[in-house]
Amino acid sequence: MSFLIRPSYWFVILLLFNSCESIPFLQDSSTEKSIFSVTIPQIEGAREKRDRYEFIGKEIIISSDHPLASQAGMEVWKQGGNVVDVFTASSFAISVLRPHSTGLLGGGFAVVYLPNKGKWAYDFRERSPKKGIASFYLNEDGTVISGKTLKGAYSAAVPGNVQGILQIQKQHGKLPLSVVLAPALRYARSGFSVYGDLAGAVAKTWTSMNPPMQNVFGIDKRAIREGELLIQEELAKTLERIIQNDKLEFLEGETIQKISEYYTAYENFITIEDFKNYQVKVTEPLTSSVWGHTIFTMPPPSSGVHLVTMMNLYSEMQKRNTFPKGEVGELIRIIEAMRVAYRDRAELGGDPLYTNIPVTKLLSQSYAKEETNEIEKKVVSGSWPTISEENKKPESYNTTHISILDKDGNAVSTTQSVNGIFGAGQMVPGTGLVLNNTMDDFAVAPGVPNLYGLVGSKANAIEPGKTPLSSMSPVILTDNSGKTKMVIGAPGGSQIPTSIFNTLYRYLIQKEGLYDSVSYPRIHHQFSPDRIFLDPEIKASYPQSDLPFYQVQYIRHRAKVFAVAREGDSLIGVSDPKGEGVPLGF
Ligand code: DON
């Protein structure tokens, strides 16, 4: 059968992975290239890592958060695949390779741009099940039941990753599922070496995993360690069934039967009916002109619209001469643009089928002008009101992004997730699949912060069938001549829109190289808490003493950017040097 791979081939791939550090483009380099300007700060260690995290191709380029996921994409490209085949192969592969970040029981978004065919925004994010109502998560007195949206069976929403990716593949891919899923199947069955980030995630969540999950992510009843081989045999079998049964596997196959059996112990919170009702949403991408480019991104419930507002506001503020000169003035412009965008997100953000989001207004120049007038009043008067108290929440590293671009401008930008580290911490027995905990992306009660410290309003309240608000904002940019210029996105919870903003700002406004732009220390503000977060490397440029009207915290920005760009005849790929991934191409 087509999914049976010759054992010798598994060996070659395993060898490839195990010897990644000896492949020149994956190697760390201690020699500093002359191209680096000492005036461009980078996050700690980034300068030395450039050879590993940057790749230049001519035909195709991919940037993802695991070398083998990028490799999976290139493998199907070499077999005659197009960018969508690359997307499908790398998406399934990454769900095997980063099970703490994403997975087949997660959800996501993808913006697809095929210049000769069209452009689409695919929303295959999780939806609240029919039983998912707000009161389910509240005590009788209206207080929130601690942890119910965060861990366990009730924290999961109806997943969409498999349905979404298969639909995109069916509409635009060229190769059969047996070919595009072959790398993922191989990684699950033959295993791969556990890397530091995955080992850390397993160790951190070990005690809260259910027994089937401990069986997969443990050896001798302890958490699997860095360097050990992770084999996911049940997941391999699930992948084989998807290859055979396509989307029916999630409607009437063994996988959905097993999910439904698991939920009999949990009041049938998610049912087969929920899977049957699940619809992938396909729309036009949200399109806007900004910073000399056209941006295609996801409409709500993604945060793409707030990213564009942020960019527009920055440009409007640049036209005013009332802001302080120099770096402090520039920081104020960036921070105040972020503050407004995240305020809008908190107040208005939610599923557009359930709440009215004034997208046209938020994208308009008149809105940017009005909001800039308000910011200007604060700057001129020196009166800086602060807003609500800080709500500190644990941070995590998860979710994933893949950027793909070929020489003809065909592009895919996709962000996928199980939300928190290992989602719900529950594996559905017999499937190798980990449930998401995306119910936490709803505002469980107005003003109560989620895992990422983000607050929301009634617009993002839990309701059956509803899609939770998301920070995931996959982006594709075209230049003035209409050619695809750039594909970018990031994992990182609340820091997703600002990490994209920071990188676009360095690349398009400050005209720095793509690698320098990705690894430049970042600036973040998310409205609540009312605080600036700065990467420690720029502390000297922005000491608290120069910013008496702000509260500043110097802390590592956790979002990881995956970007590819066309520069002349070259395709440049960069994976964030904070991560484990690499860009690859031809
Ligand atoms: O959709 C969202 O906004 C979140 N589920 C994303 C979570 C995430 O990026 C976690 N990464 N650190």
From TrEMBL:
Q: Extract the Pfam families matched here.
A: G_glu_transpept (PF01019)
Family annotation (SUPFAM superfamilies): N-terminal nucleophile aminohydrolases (Ntn hydrolases) (SSF56235)
Annotated metabolic or biological route of this protein: Sulfur metabolism; glutathione metabolism
Residues of the active site are T399 (nucleophile)
Q: How does it assemble?
A: This enzyme consists of two polypeptide chains, which are synthesized in precursor form from a single polypeptide.
Which keywords does the record carry?
Answer: Acyltransferase, Glutathione biosynthesis, Hydrolase, Transferase, Zymogen
User: What are the BP-aspect GO terms?
Assistant: glutathione biosynthetic process; glutathione catabolic process
Q: How is it modified after translation?
A: Cleaved by autocatalysis into a large and a small subunit.
The reaction(s) catalysed by this protein are: an S-substituted glutathione + H2O = an S-substituted L-cysteinylglycine + L-glutamate; an N-terminal (5-L-glutamyl)-[peptide] + an alpha-amino acid = 5-L-glutamyl amino acid + an N-terminal L-alpha-aminoacyl-[peptide]; glutathione + H2O = L-cysteinylglycine + L-glutamate
* GO molecular function terms attached to this record: glutathione hydrolase activity; leukotriene C4 gamma-glutamyl transferase activity
The similarity comment for this entry is: Belongs to the gamma-glutamyltransferase family.
Q: Where does L-glutamate bind?
A: R125, S417, V418, N419, D441, S470, S471, G493
Query: What's the protein here called?
Result: Glutathione hydrolase proenzyme
Write down the species. Leptospira bandrabouensis
Q: Does the keyword Transferase apply?
A: yes
Specify whether Iron is a keyword of the entry.
no
Listed EC numbers: 2.3.2.2, 3.4.19.13
